[in-house]
Write a structure and sequence with these properties.
Number of strands: 12
Distance between the termini: 130 Å
Helix content: 25-40%
Largest sheet: 9 strands, mixed
Strand order of the largest sheet: 6-5-4-7-8-9-10-11-12
Radius of gyration: 31 Å
Structural class: alpha/beta
Shape: elongated
Number of helices: 6
Length: 253
């Protein structure tokens, strides 16, 4: 009877030996992974953010154990950089920190009181510092009285509404947008691209409904301005529903 059970006992002993061996290998593997330090940082999506500033935010060097770092915390650190909209971080057993960035895109270029370039604003109203290479073909914004703030979006409701509208403009509408100004009353005035006479026309837009008013301006431009090259419009006001108020230069015979 004991003889019949011997194979089972042997099987149990063999299985137990395999489990111990597997456990030993797992322990060795864990010790090896836990001892891996950061060898390099690979960043995808980096275009305008400063790489060294990003590395400083990560605060990980070759003395740092890779798996002592929390990937979510590292991503949160990177999102403190003004040019970073979102970040994702992955720790790899090779010792590499793999980073994916989604950078912010400028929508307006803010000019200071002296007319010098100050900073950009993205579509969410966050301020972006200037970069050496500035390939952004975006409208100018004058008259903003809010100082640059690295983490707080612009507070002006009119400017926020304008930024939300800009991504939706058509190509024809975009061709008319040259420069914006925030008036002391908080309204937005657009200065158009120059007409055939070489003059930019100020267009009062107000504080809201900018996409609708861009469409109205485009239609008026085609029907009234392009068809009457001898007429000089000195101001256009689009704040009133179903009504366009204009001023024209007086002519003398």
């Amino acid at each position: 009877m004991n003889t019949r059970w011997m194979p089972s006992v042997t099987a149990v002993i063999v299985a137990g030996t395999m489990l111990v061996a597997a456990g030993g290998l797992g322990y060795v593997g864990w010790r090896w992974v836990s001892g891996v330090t950061v060898h390099q940082v690979d960043i995808d999506g980096l275009a305008y953010a400063d790489r060294q500033q990003l590395l400083d935010l990560l605060d990980a060097d070759t003395t740092t154990y890779l798996y002592d770092l929390d990937a979510d915390i590292l991503a949160d650190r990177l999102q403190r950089h003004p040019w970073v909209h979102a970040a994702q971080v992955q720790r790899r057993p090779s010792g590499t920190l793999k980073v994916w960035l989604d950078e912010r895109r400028p929508s307006l270029l803010v000019l200071d009181r002296s007319g010098r370039r100050s900073h950009y604003l993205d579509r969410d109203g966050f301020a972006l510092p200037l970069v050496d290479a500035a390939p952004f073909d975006v409208p100018l914004l004058r008259g903003l009285r809010e100082a640059y703030h690295p983490v707080r979006p612009v507070q002006s409701v009119a400017v926020r509404n304008l930024l939300a509208a800009l991504p939706n403009v058509t190509e024809d509408e975009d061709a008319l947008l040259s420069e914006f100004e925030v008036t002391r009353s908080g309204e937005i005035v657009l200065y158009t691209a120059p007409t055939r006479s070489g003059q930019a026309i100020p267009v009062t837009l107000g504080r809201r409904d900018f996409n609708q008013r861009f469409q109205t301006l485009r239609a008026f431009w085609r029907q009234a301005i392009l068809t009457q090259p001898d007429k000089q419009f000195t101001r256009i006001d689009l704040r009133f529903e179903r009504q366009i108020v204009t001023e024209e230069a007086s002519t003398t015979s």
